[in-house]
Amino acid sequence: MADGADQGGDPVASTTRTDDASPMSSMTELLERCDDSQLLDLTNHYRQRLEEAIQKVVENVVFVLAYERYFSEQEYKQVIKRTKRGSRAAGSRLLLNLVTEKEPRVRKLIWKCFVKMHHLLPKLEELLKAMGEEGSDLIESFKAMKASLELPAHLKDVQQKHKETLRAQTETLSVNTILMNEKVKVFQLLDRYAELTVISTVRDRTLVEHELLARGRDHEEWREEHLGGEFEKIRTDQLFQNVSLSKSKSGSSSAVAGVAGIGKTTMVQKIVHDWATGKIFQQFQFVFSFKFRDLNTIKDRMTLRELILEQYPYFGNMLGEVWKNPEGLLFIFDGLDEFKGRIDFSDSRRDTEPKHQCPDPEWWCEVSDIVYSLIQHKLLPGCSVLVTTRPTALHLLEKAEISVRAEILGFVGEERKEYFTRYFEDQSVAAAVFKHVKENEILYTMSYNPSCCWILVLTLGPFFTQTHRDPQRVPKTITQLYCYFIYNILKNHGREIESLREVLLKLGQMAFTGVAEKNIVFTDGDLIKYNLQPSQFLSGFLMELLEREDSARSVVYTFPHLTIQEFVAALAQFLTPDRGDITTLLIEAHGNSDGRFEVFLRFVAGLSSPRASWILEEFLGKFPHQTICRVSDWVKDEVKRRAGNTKSDDGKRRLLNTLHYLFESQNPVLAQETLGSVETLSLGGLGLTPIDCVVLSHAIRLCDTIKCLDLSSCRIQYEGLQRLGPALHKCQHLRLGDNDLGDSGVKPVSAALRNRQCKMQRLELDSVGLTDSATEDLVSALSTNPSLRHLYLRHNSLTDRSVPALRRLILNHPRLKQIWLWGNQFGATGEKELRSLQESRPGLTVTV
């Protein structure tokens, strides 16, 4: 390769050392012993670890493979381009894709090349040693598994037909384009599928149902802290890995949870496609996939046989043969949260009452009993089952016999960027859109969710491709973003329908009922109830707003994303003529305790801002002035009322929500009238996300002076405090104790102390993880601060190394009255010196 020739020398030879060949001898022997099929099995089995092992030097690895002529120059450039455009993880993933596609002889030579490079990469060396030790046992397991999968000739034909059918059903991904002439654009699944982060357990916390309320930027911090430690990132093909290597006949059930739009259904599509194309789960002879929203339409009793034949009629009389080896069957049920039947795994009567039992595939029973019996291994014991659900329905599975519980975190770190680079063909546009998203905390918080990314790219794309767009109009709040999203739909498809406003109001009323009743799936009957004709949803803007899904039994409709349903619901409530009871509706919705109306209310507040709603007036007419005034008055009254009622956690949560409403309204006059007289904001003990911190900072900056800002035990980390930084100098009493700030977290506080307008008199930094490294910066900031009187630094990790800096602070800051230092790690000498300083400063109390 021309590029390699310029480097000089043999890169592989230069990495080989004779003195450490022995640790790799087992791996070398394993490679010699493996046949082509076994080596491919091992490659797939260890693929994730191999990807991670070569990530940091993927450019060097692909260079070596190209130099040795195992990769072509074009393949080399593909990997380099993917690494630069996406991430090292993306480059590593592509490199391994290319390796698995190579002919067997070349694949073995590539593995031998990895062995030669082992000492340069500790993770690779560790992996190769493990393979050398485990490989023989794994090969035997693979042999046993393949022997059990051997099918009679007549079943091979139906298996081949089944795989061809599933491959055809799953190889493409339909994406609503909105902005283009095609209403739906079809992409190859593999071209558009971006990897999601999946962890091998569901986090032990109250999972927030709504992804806009869930954590965004701090997903990255959370991942760095826990992945590889307490929680482990897994691949989807590991959900049933124990099945392929286990001699157990009990089968396995797995559950994957994830919030709305996180990619559960697309993940299922990818799993089915990868099985049909022979990439994963080859321990299963047959895979059957169902959606709970389709199962809702089955009202009569049913057999598992009929259920399968209805969807896969070509099995005919073969199913009796299929049942004989249940260990080779995988059933997938997608969307438990959408199921309207009752499945209660804690109800012991299901196992004793004949009407609930489903002992074999020919037994007539309720659909819920079929699903229950499969998961609990009472029907076809030995088969495996995968269930996906939103967190809200996880409680249904608490007593279920689930072997693996996993959670989709969505996009983390570079995975977010990869979505944007894959979506836009013009990489300069991709970079510009992603840069805007990353610089806007509100939008960036949304971007861990694939469906939200879809909304972001559709809405923001035109601002960076059309020169006449005003950059000042680029959406900065969630309401502004969704106004432009709906505007683009109306502009491109709205002229196809008469009475646009009237139809949108009807749709919005249906959407609102869905929000109120926590329903996201609608039927023809629901449309007719709101005077909407199902035929209207076959074209035009209604098809863009409500996705139609046909199944063998029925037609169902869903909004592309829960937030779109909530926005359309808010729009309808705002635009309804003579909306005299809007205040009553807002009060009732805000009074709901389970959070179902939180984002709906943010949208209502946001629509009161002309900066958000003006773009929609072209199609929907003027927004009612009376409604704008009533919504603004309600927000103002609510903030004032909630600011003085924060003794309970519920009161604090409601205050935070009202601050979000104020932020979405983007009304400086309203905010000043509301917050100008507020003196105390107490949110202690309430978990705050970075997006909450942005909203809180916005609120504080509008206050004249905050007598007390209590953010103790709010689980704030550096990222969140950085967002609060510009407003902290306004606080007279700042409580930040019991947050994991660390030394970096002191920097925003120090910046506030250096501000010439700083009003801070009492600063509490107890139990925030400070070390000696932070002391100097803090003392330096206080040396120019004339206002501070009381400083709390208890229960940190300060040692005698901090004493000189603290000595300067005590002697040179004449207004300091109290400093609390006990609970640190001072030695006897350090404590003695600190106490002695009180004598030099009458009126100063030093507590060590």
Give a written overview of the molecule.
Strands 4-3-9-5-8-7-6 form a seven-stranded mixed sheet, sandwiched between helices. A seven-stranded parallel sheet has the order 13-14-15-16-17-18-19. Helix 4 runs antiparallel to helix 9 (122-149). The radius of gyration is 31 Å and the shape is globular. The chain has 848 residues and is an alpha/beta fold. It is built from 40 helices and 19 strands.
Kindly list the characteristics that best describe this protein.
848 residues, alpha/beta, seven-stranded mixed sheet, seven-stranded parallel sheet, 10% strand, disordered N terminus
Strand sequence of the main sheet, in spatial order? 4-3-9-5-8-7-6
Fraction of helical residues: 40-55%
Largest sheet: 7 strands, mixed
Instruction: Give the end-to-end Cα distance, rounded to a whole number of Å.
Output: 68 Å
Strand runs, count: 19
| Category by helix and strand content | alpha/beta
* Bulk shape: globular
- Rounded to the nearest angstrom, the radius of gyration is 31 Å
Strand content: 5-15%
From the structure provided, what is the oligomeric state, counting identical versus distinct chains?
single chain
- Give the number of helices: 40
Show unreliable segments. 1-8, 13-21, 204-230, 244-248
| Mean pLDDT across every amino acid position | 83
